[in-house]
Amino acid sequence: MAAEHSRWEFWVDRGGTFTDVIGLRPDGTLVAHKLLSDNPEAYSDAAVQGIRDLLGLAAGEPIPQNRIGAVKMGTTVATNALLERKGERTLLVTTRGFRDALKIGYQARPKIFARNIVKPDVLYERVVEIDERVRADGTVEREPDLAEARAALERANADGIAAVAIVFMHAYRYPAHEQRVAALARELGFPQVSASHEISPLIKLVGRGDTSVVDAYLSPIIARYVAQVANELDSERSGARLMFMMSSGGLTAADLFHGKDAILSGPAGGVVGMAETGRAAGFERLIGFDMGGTSTDVSHFDGEYERAFETEVAGVRMRAPMMLIHTVAAGGGSILHFDGARFRVGPDSAGANPGPKCYRRGGPLALTDANVMTGKLIPEFFPKIFGPRQDQPLDAEAVRAAFIELAREVGDNRTPE
Predict the structure, then answer these.
(1) Is residue 12 part of a domain?
(2) Averaged confidence pLDDT in the chain
């Protein structure tokens, strides 16, 4: 117990634009630190750099052994990859005759009077149908054609597709066919193979399939980030225990953190923080509004955490326990567009690199810049973490110059404001 009290504890909120680090010193005092999430000229990972800064380590100095007890992190890496459709290229392998099952979904029409229906893009890039079939009672109607599967998988691999989602009929109960094709995909060198009987072993093809595709699409992104953080922390040598917050609000070990559990990792931490802060202040009924650089999350708390087991995020259905949060692709980094006829915000984000114009990295005009321009965001009250040495304030002059240029481009004599 004494050894634990002699170590630092860290809590990290790694967003798409900013990373916030809270450190608990061995003497019990708390300290906070804020950094840009992406600043490649200064550091390779913001979370680790924040920890290093709080430990007082010089550049290149290794993290000492037994100085860190645990690092508990919530991250929007998966959320933002999903919102911006920047996940891994994914192949869907399914039973012959069901190639469009996930695209058709439940045939729900959320806006029944909409004349121009815009369906969200599917996450998988290509579909392969395998000639196999198991009936609902387990009777094998057709064994999988592994030669056909091998040829299709080899073509996808040669084309650079690195993730595979395997979704066969009734595999939640009779997984043998999925297991054989999954083994084949792993043998061929696919780094990410998400078989539905492993990812979401529940009845209903669409829910199981959607969740497996999400897992295949996002898990490589998560795996790369987890590996990067673990490598930077040098976890094995330093003894730092790395954990991540899941969408459900619980913590899991880094090696068990997968795409389907990571969608609302960062926002879930916000809900827990909101609830506990509200309770401390004597409030039991709360509405949370968490606006970050890339996305905005709205939540509700009425004395207990609300969770959903089947939900939709950014137009993508999935079946996994998660906090009941509504996420939209709008944040401080959402880019402002003018297409010659109308103004539009997002859904693409400037992120942290280059970030909005005011971040001093040559970025585009974004929602944050609009708030700076209108005086809603005052540079003097914002952390001075910009510029080559991360010690300068927001650049209000660059913002004004950019809006003046935009006003000229619009050409209707309106003011920059």
Answers:
(1) yes
(2) 88
Instruction: Give the pair of three-digit tokens for residue 271.
Output: 């809900």
Residues 92 and 73 reside in one and the same domain: no
Check if the beta carbon of residue 130 is closer than 8 Å to that of residue 165: no
Give the separation between CA 306 and CA 98, rounded to whole angstroms. 34
Supply angle C-alpha 394, 397, 403, rounded to 5. Answer: 110
pTM here is 0.79
More confident residue, 344 or 216: 216
Is there a domain that residue 244 lies in? Answer: yes
Mean pLDDT, rounded, for 102-127: 86
| pLDDT(346) > 80 | no
Same domain, 286 and 384: no
Provide the 3-class DSSP secondary structure of residue 412: coil
- Quick one: which of 357, 396, 359 has its CA closest to 376? 396
307: left (phi over 0), alpha (psi -120 to 50) or beta: beta
The yes-or-no verdict on residue 117 having pLDDT over 90 is no
Please give the biggest Cα pair distance in the chain. Answer: 73
Cβ pair 333, 368 in contact under 8 A = yes
pLDDT score of 281: 94
pLDDT digits (tens, 9 = 90+) for 58-75: 877 888 888 898 999 998
pLDDT at 197: 95
pLDDT: which is higher, 379 or 414: 379
pLDDT of 380-398, one tens digit each? 888 888 888 888 889 888 8
Q: Span 282-286, mean pLDDT?
A: 92
What is the structure's pLDDT at 337? Answer: 84
Do 99 and 148 reside in the same domain of the chain? yes
Nearest residue to 264 via CA among 312, 205, 223, 216: 312
CATH number of the domain within which 43 lies = 3.30.420
Cα gap 138→136, rounded to integer Å: 6
- CA dihedral 344→348→350→353, nearest 10 degrees, is -170
Decide if 22 is inside a domain: yes
Question: Does the bond joining 40 to the residue before it have cis omega, within 30 degrees of 0?
Answer: no
Query: Which residues span the domain enclosing 206?
Result: 87-217
What is the β-pairing status of strands 133-134 and 140-142?
Answer: antiparallel
312 sits in which H/E element: strand 311-313
User: Number of structural domains, the chain?
Assistant: 4
> How far is the C-alpha of 186 from the C-alpha of 224, rounded, in Å?
18
Residue 1 resides in a domain = no
340 shares a domain with 303: no
Same domain for 93 and 74: no
